[in-house]
Write a structure and sequence with these properties.
The chain has 270 residues and is an alpha/beta fold. It has helices at 16-27, 43-46, 57-82, 98-107, 116-119, 126-135, 161-169, 171-176, 195-203, 220-231, 245-251, 253-260, and strands at residues 5-10, 33-38, 89-93, 111-114, 140-142, 152-156, 179-184, 209-213, 235-239, 265-269. The longest helix has 26 residues, at 57-82.
């Protein structure tokens, strides 16, 4: 199993260089095509609040300013893409309707790369992150400093749908990993599950994974993060938004705690 297309949404802003560097680091070990997708603010999104007379002087000026900003952003994103030093790449510039275009591109990507700010709802790609992960249910990699493919990958697994989907989709990472560890915290879960089953699933695909049973109860996220740090994890694989997203937004949830952590990089699937 491998990945053939890695996608990185670009905003045309300061975060693009870090996002592109992370996407190159992920695509290179697989020889995957790298797709840089410029995702500007959509002019169509501001049209409704302008009212019926939106073509008046002030409104026209506002639209022109948005178009100019989009053009400048595209120029910057192209420059970042050109300078990334990776040959197998393509640049896509989304047009109105931007969100429909983003969805279409994400559906044909094996994994979508973001940095910390969008994953935490900050900056121009915050909404794009939510759309790709939660609405389109595409696997995402949240790249943190020191992202490494081929090191230690830990998989947080509780037998649930989201965690199992993430564990399956992350198989290419595990095949490249030097060390693979399944983290299971039975006392922190309401489910009854056997981590040896995931271990057998991986073994049938040529991946030798260790199992670490975590004795702690209570909030799973700090337990998992501490175990990942102890294992020297480069990437933590986990399911995302196991509860309704509105509930997780209000009450926090494991996903939000993982997103607010600084290490390791995260591979998430909903």
């Amino acid at each position: 199993m491998s990945w053939a297309r890695v996608m990185a949404p670009l905003s045309g802003g300061q975060g693009d260089r870090a996002a592109m560097a992370a996407a190159v680091a992920l695509a290179k070990p697989f020889g995957a095509e790298l797709s840089g997708v410029y995702t500007p603010a959509d002019v169509a999104d501001v049209m409704p609040w302008m009212g019926e007379g939106f073509m008046g002087g002030v409104q026209t000026t506002a639209l022109e300013s948005l178009k100019e900003a989009a053009q400048a952003g595209e120029k910057h994103a192209r420059e970042v893409m050109d300078a990334c030093g990776y040959a197998k790449k393509q640049f896509v510039s989304l047009q109105t309707p931007v969100w429909a275009g983003l969805s279409a591109e994400a559906r044909l990507a094996d994994v979508v790369v973001f940095t910390n700010d969008p994953a935490r709802g900050r900056g121009p790609l915050g909404e794009a992150f939510q759309q790709v992960l939660a609405d389109e249910q595409r696997p995402v990699l949240i790249a943190r400093e020191g992202l490494k493919v081929g090191g230690c990958v830990v998989v947080a697994w509780d037998g649930g749908k989201e965690a199992s989907r993430a564990a399956r989709l992350a198989l290419p990472l595990l095949e490249k990993a030097k060390t693979a560890v399944i983290l299971a915290a039975p006392k922190a879960s309401s489910r009854s599950f056997d981590p040896a089953k995931l271990q057998a699933y991986y073994a049938a695909r040529g991946v030798k994974a260790q199992i670490e049973l975590l004795p702690e109860s209570g909030d799973a996220a700090p337990v998992l993060l501490h175990a990942a740090q102890r294992a020297g994890a480069d990437i933590l694989v986990a399911g995302a938004f196991g509860h309704p997203r509105l509930q997780e937004f209000i009450f926090g949830g494991t996903t939000r705690t993982l997103l607010n952590s600084d290490h390791p990089s995260l591979f998430l699937s909903h």
